[in-house]
Amino acid sequence: MPxxxxxxxxxxxxxxxxxxxxxxxxxVKRAAExxxxxxxxxxxxxxxxLPGADIAATVARSPMSSLSGxxxxxxxxxxxxxxLMPLTIMPAVYNVGIAIREHGDPLIAAxxxxxxxxxxxxxxxxxxxxxxxxxxxxxxxxxxxxxxxLTSAFLHRTAPQLISNMSTLICSGLALERRxxxxxxxxxxxxxxxxxxxxxxxxxxxxxxxxTSLQHMPIAVFxxxxxxxxxxxxxxxxxxxxxTHTRQLELPGQWRQxxxxxxxxxxxxxxxxNHSATPLLLQADLEYDLCGIVxxxxxxxx
Length: 302
Description:
302 residues, mainly alpha, 13 helices
């Protein structure tokens, strides 16, 4: 029986012209589920291959694990730690204030930097399993999870680490981005990946030197996280531009290009006196930051 105007059959189904978006969402969800399954499988294989211990035991040797509620980041921050406010928080806030006063609103003067800061803050607001996103060389090499070369940079252990790194990123970004534009974001991501590639190569070389494999080499999973290597690379880039000043600690005159090494030494001394940093964690962080300096030097000399 023919339908009158405005009538529909019960079997009729409305198909939106935007249904392809639902198809894309479904495909992305399935891909994410498959990736999650591969991550879990790779971790289980790696854990079962370690003689008498697994990655969980390696992390458990660090005092961080008692605060992390399992292998999660960020961990709880003890704001009563001596020297935390005068040595970390206050200098970070002061440097950002000086940089904004000189260069203007970051949303206008450095939108790419603002976007990178927002991405770091968003990642910090999501408490995630560190082993899923950190730099695990065995998983990268044998499971092909190369995204860890970038994602590990957006994981921060504590709020003070995030504040310190974002302060350096804002100060350096305000000074560097005005001449580079949005290309600056690509340069930051490039030096970040380069630093992690260098760290991956360093860990592989150390494993071969010690006569062990990446599969059995002890790893501080909480080590080498955050944007600190990228920040050291940005300091190198700023120091090699005579007209660029980040308004942070800088050596005068011809010694200005050595600023990054002085900052690296001060950072190493502060970590050395931090009793919560185990030797394995200290080694991972300092190795990561050193790779950032080398990545920055490669950028300015390349």
